[in-house]
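Students often ask why we bother encoding 3D structure as a string. The short answer is that it lets us treat folding as translation between two languages. Here is a chain of 292 residues written in the first language.
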Amino acid sequence: MDTTTRSSSESSQNSEQGLLNSYEKSEGHPRYATRKIRRAPWGVILPWSLCVVLLVAIVVQARIIRIRSATPSTSFWGTRELEIVKREVAPNKKVVRFTGGLRYNSSKQLYREIDRTVPDYTGKPTEEITAAWHDLITTTDIFLTKAEIEEIIANGGTFANLPHKDDVLYTDPFVGLYQAVPTVFHDLHCLDKVRRGIYLDYYSEDDTEIFWPHIEHCLDTIRQSIMCHADMTPIPEAYTDFKPSGHLEPIFQIEHTCRDFEAIQKWAKGRDALDEKVWRKNAERLKLDTKN
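And here it is in the second language, the structure alphabet:
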């Protein structure tokens, strides 16, 4: 046989075999079609898997939001503050522009700016000023139930760490409820006591042997409370020609972000333990709520 012919024939056979192998490895050959069938579902499974993961993430996030909304705001309330007030008073803040700033007039005399739209709490004593302070701190002591005291102790609150080991918590002998004084109302009481001390001639009934120890206690308590809350709202200083000692004048009538004091005061009034007009009703309601 001609060598050239045989080589040509072998080449043709090799070419055909190569095409056959190529066909077998192609996606159309039955032997490799199974691989395609096995691989194809991932194109469907992967998007659905991602959808499931996303759905689970949404459900988990929604649950976290619900838990946080049901839990007292730790950024609003302090860890030592009343547990019950965290649940019953909304953690709302409001913007309040402070009043009563000091200014110098063109005669270089210092005066206090007075806002007539709000009660005046300072100045020479009058019946109106005395009444304004009374309305501000009409509530000092509040009732707390046994369950509320136990909750405070369980959470490591103030009643769990009394400074004197022999101290026994007071319970009202008539209604059997505990009593406490929210710090804000004690601070206001102390501030009013210092104010009255400036005008002892007017408030002569305060001039007793316990008055000055009381004043010293109040001054130190107010100092500590101010340092504890440490308001960092900046007070601007403006240029002035009227100030005798320099050219800088603080602008005190600025906006501060504050807790809703009226809401806190209203809540406390519902637990007032001293006001003869309401304490019995408050006690009965709290005792009834405890039974329910």
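Translate back mentally: Residues 83-290 form one domain. Keep this in mind for the problem set.
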